[in-house]
Design brief:
Elements lengths: L12 H9 L4 H15 L1
């Protein structure tokens, strides 16, 4: 079963969990996720 996201959702459960587990800085995480989004577009 897939996730049902509402209109104001900006992250998936998987991305949110990865952010919470990470020891990286917010800046490093933002850069990593931005590159992943661009690569998948």
């Amino acid at each position: 079963m897939g996730q049902v996201l509402h209109n104001s959702t900006t992250t998936t459960y998987a991305i949110r969990a990865a952010i919470q587990r990470s020891q990286a800085s917010v800046k490093d995480l933002a850069e990593l996720l931005w590159h992943q989004l661009k690569d998948n577009a």
